[in-house]
Amino acid sequence: MNTKDILEKKTLEKEDLLYLVKLRGRQDIDAIKNKAQEVLLSKCGGKVYYRGLVEFSNICSSDCFYCGIRKSNTAVNRFMLDSEEVVEAAKWCAEQGYGSIVLQSGERSDPPFINYVEEVVRQIKKTTVSDKLSAGLGITLCVGEQSRETYRRFYKAGAHRYLLRIESSNPQLFASIHPPRQTLQSRIRCLEILKEEGFQVGTGVMIGLPGQNLEHLVDDILFFRDIDVDMIGMGPYIVHSGTDMKVYREAFEENLEENFIRSLLMIALTRLTLRDVNIAATTALQTIKENGREQGLDFGANVIMPQLTPVNVRKDYMLYEDKPCIDESKEQCRSCLERRIKSVGREVALDQWGDSPHYARKKKRD
Ligand code: 5AD
Question: Less crowded by CB within 10 Å, the N or C end of the chain?
Fold first, then answer.
């Protein structure tokens, strides 16, 4: 079978994905991109949804080997925004018509942190109700592994989406980038609990990890399918010099082009396999290529996260180096993104949550 025949198949199997993910010819890549756009249009429409991003604290009790804000990186200036600041950012987000917000931070499970998150969610819900947003902003949390009880409290407070990346679904690869006490099993369990508690759940992986091959990436897509998530966020792994993984810098720089195209193909093949989920064009794509996020949209993504983190703390939230948009105000970020989205012929959907159609279809099926 050739590329065209495989792309016409209704269901892609592992060997189809393996065939497609290896292609590097211009025509083949274009054929994959076009098919991803076709599926996106028919399953989700062509609109792009915004999620304003507030990185509200970099204090972290985890020690992921790749991450710039890992606990053992003592060079980081640790911060936590006042809850008022987060609520202010949320109000601005709602006024802009962004519709949804993502609250992200380092991972902590101590009671003051949990209380803070719960209270901030509650406040945002209370203060962002308007004629246009009758149930207030849609709230996505991205605050790591927590207990069922904590997830339940967050949901009750008004958060309805949760992002928890699996980073890699391969047990050896996962173990090679995390300390032994952080396990793949526990991450998977959290994803299951989040679904049971009613959240729309997102996951994702990093692309270009040392030791990661194309079969691992295809298995990641099959993992997304089998665990039946609603949202995907993934992007290239980028070396941070404050981590032990800095020894991979040379290899990382040599593989930039390849990892970029792998990231775009992962978006397209995830679109072709999962079809009606929301997929983010992540900022990490833009670290490698100036127009990386636009290309992500072109390969089937439909979500973008404008920066709302206050500029004075942004430099302290460096999960990876050379993070773009580090000193742009949220206003600049808004107009820049608008221009970028228009440049690829797409439009932003304002004043709506923009939930993934997958979630609605799942609900109907139940
Ligand atoms: N490069 C790319 N992505 C990273 N993340 C953390 N560190 C890095 C890095 N060095 C991603 C992880 C995490 C998300 C919040 O940020 O996938 O889940």
Answer: C
